Amino acid sequence: ICGHSDAMLGTVSANAATFGLLRDTVHALGLCVGPDDIYLGLRGLRTMGVRLAAHYQAGLKIAQWLAARPEVARVLHPAFDTCPGHAVWKRDFTGASGLFGVVLKEGVSDGALAAMIDGLELYGIGSSWGGYESLIVPFSPREVRTATPWQAKGPCFRIHAGLENIDDLIEDLDAGFGRLRAAL
36 with 4: CB under 8 angstroms? Predict the structure, then answer.
């Protein structure tokens, strides 16, 4: 909601059956939003529509570029028909955020992935998704996945496409892939 990476603020929805539990949890944890965070949220709401559209367009273009890379096994973006849940996304949504996952091919070492990510100039390392800046973070679903086992063999990373120039973001990733290949 805020969009400037200066506050954590969001929403939670509940139906009649779960609202009581949600209310009790909020009260038990003492959750409340302070006036400064409310101000930052209201400020961010003014630009949320244009920011989300820009994040979606940038994320989609970067995801399409990544899908064509020889080092990439799979791109996990809801707009791709190969992505689990694509049918639900297509039915219920008109766009997406700039957040998506990338699975690299088997044989890419953690060191090679680190060489790629550590040298990026336009991407910060982190997971404060939804802000104006582009972020990247390696992740491994293997350790936390509970519903179904994670089958992919290669390492993964997530990208949040920010509001920087899309071609510059792709150029930065391209240089990163050069470092990745050199480290293999």
Answer: no
In this prediction, residues 147-155 reach a mean pLDDT of 90
Q: Which amino acid is at 78?
A: P
Contact 161, 134 (CB under 8 A): yes
Residue count of the chain: 184
Confidence of residue 12 (pLDDT cuts 50, 70, 90): confident
> Closest Cα partner for 120 from 85, 63, 58, 171?
171
With CA atoms as reference, report the closest residue to 123 among 171, 56, 88, 156.
Answer: 171
133: left (phi > 0), else alpha (psi -120 to 50), else beta? beta
SS3 state of residue 42: helix
pLDDT of residue 25: 94
Torsion of CA 164, 166, 170, 172, to 10 degrees: -20
Closest to 101 measured CA to CA, from 137, 125, 151, 51: 137
